[in-house]
Design brief:
six-stranded antiparallel β-sheet; Rossmann fold; 324 residues; Tumour Suppressor Smad4
Length: 324
């Protein structure tokens, strides 16, 4: 913190009112205090199956308190993280930190769109897809220490029939797994592995039609992902060419396949080559219409959602400020 040296010069003709001096000094101290930026940390206590009881101490020991003031709010059952983030905007916070996984980021980020309040991500979730893509440290101590170390930048968001998401949305098998995972008591990577192994060979591909500014597609798909970030999480790169900063979404269509092709698909995902794989069709666009003939389950950032027969998606370019 900057140090201020205050000098007073007195003459015999000038009388200094002690109360006025103290009042002026108090105003100066308040001004200096406000130079610190205020961050609200919204903590999801169950994300990733990781305990968060020690987070306040980690924050106290690793945040740059010369630059930032912090408040911690725990997202308990029956409370609304999005509403709390919206309140933080009206309260004049400079940033809101999502402490959890992609679902926590999803809840916080949509409240900050087209505001001056920045998003901070402290990855403590199951997949941490957006954080991994943005190269935010997965170590909580290092993630806290990294806050404000780079110039703020503007990140895109995507609108899904008016609902906003920050990383990846999807329909088909990944949405089905999102719904299974939401009901499961197993969290973290192994929770996903358990759901996938139980459901993989029972799930049937469906028929969809897509329309975008430069083309159309229709046919059967095992899944369709619409990506802002490039990976689902745990370094499974569904759309390696995607960028949160280019005003475009990346659409990845996984075609129906036979059981013996599963290892090749997995290798493409984890080797970051899905966009070059024959198992996938991929393209980029700024607007997309997705149709299916009947009821369908989607996911937005891993959170399951009952979707309509027709879904309209469009990119909100540079919609949110990111402190990473």
């Amino acid at each position: 913190m900057a140090l201020f040296k205050v000098e007073f010069t007195f003459s015999d003709e000038v009388l200094i009112d002690q109360k006025n001096i103290l009042h002026s000094l108090n105003i100066g101290l308040l001004f200096c205090r406000r130079l610190k930026q205020r961050i609200l940390f919204i903590v999801n206590p169950i994300s990733g199956g990781k305990g968060k009881a020690g987070f306040p101490e980690l924050l106290q020991n690793n945040l740059d308190h010369a630059r930032f003031e912090s408040t911690v709010w725990v997202w308990e059952n029956g409370t609304d993280a999005t509403a709390r983030a919206e309140l933080a905007v009206s309260e004049g916070y400079d940033a809101v930190a999502a402490v959890g996984g992609d679902g926590t980021v999803h809840a916080v980020a949509r409240a900050l769109v087209h505001t001056s309040v920045a998003l901070v991500i402290i990855p403590m979730g199951s997949g941490n897809g957006l954080a991994r893509y943005l190269k935010i440290p997965l170590n909580t101590k290092k993630a806290i220490q990294s806050i404000g170390n780079v110039e703020p930048r503007k990140m895109d968001m995507i609108s899904f029939n008016g609902l906003l998401y920050s990383n990846v949305a999807g329909v088909g098998f990944d949405a089905h797994i999102g719904a299974c995972f939401a009901k499961s008591t197993s969290r973290g990577l192994w929770g996903y592995v358990k759901s996938i192994t139980q459901e993989l060979f029972h799930y049937k591909s469906d028929t969809y039609s897509l329309n975008w500014e430069n083309g159309t597609w229709s046919g059967k798909a095992f899944l369709i992902s619409i990506a802002n970030g490039a990976q689902w999480g745990n370094n499974a790169w569904i759309a390696p060419s995607a960028s949160c900063f280019d005003g475009l979404m990346q659409v990845a269509i996984l075609k129906p396949f036979s059981w013996y092709q599963v290892p090749g698909i997995a290798l493409a995902l984890f080797r970051k080559t899905a966009d070059k794989s024959s198992y996938f069709n991929q393209f980029s666009c700024s607007e997309l219409t997705l149709k299916r003939e009947d009821h369908v389950v989607f996911h937005l950032d891993g959170e399951p959602l009952d979707g309509e027969e027709t879904v309209q998606l469009n990119v909100l370019a540079s919609a949110i400020t990111l402190w990473h």
